[in-house]
Specification:
With 126 residues, the protein is mostly helical. It has two domains: 45 residues, no CATH class; 48 residues, no CATH class. It is 55% helix and 8% strand. Strands 1-2 form a two-stranded antiparallel ribbon. Strand 1 and strand 2 form a beta hairpin. The longest helix has 21 residues.
């Protein structure tokens, strides 16, 4: 495993420094999710389209009615059901020593680093 890829499976996770923290690249997992969606569409195209249209209609209704509306709750239940079918309920598993490798990579990225050209504490200016 590389430092950038502390998790190699079952789905690769890449971690990159950003100006304000870290970016988690979970595109490998998302790829698997999209393949699962495509397979579900191949099995029942109209059923999936109908399900997605109903979610979109509930979402529009929830936007108009508010986040505590029946439409918002129904949308969330439907989205959760779909996620369970195609995305392992939205949980990205990390196993064994890869948990420690991910934590270490994140810890490394939050450790303050000197800015190039910055004087060390107590050092004289050139």
């Amino acid at each position: 495993m590389s430092g950038r890829m502390p998790v190699s499976g079952p789905h690769r996770i890449y971690v990159d420094a950003t100006p304000s923290g870290a970016g988690l690249d979970v595109s490998h997992w998302l790829h698997s999710v999209l393949v699962s969606v495509a397979e579900k569409v191949a099995e029942d195209p109209q059923g999936v389209v109908d399900e997605l249209v109903e979610i979109a209609e509930l979402s529009a209704s929830a936007a108009a009615q508010g986040s505590d509306s029946h439409a918002a709750h129904e949308r969330d239940v439907r989205v959760q059901d779909l996620m369970e079918q195609v995305a392992g309920a939205g949980v990205l598993p990390v196993y064994g020593t890869q948990v420690a490798a991910l934590a270490e990579r994140l810890r490394t990225l939050v450790t303050p680093r000197p800015v190039p050209g910055q004087r060390a504490e107590g050092g004289a200016a050139a």
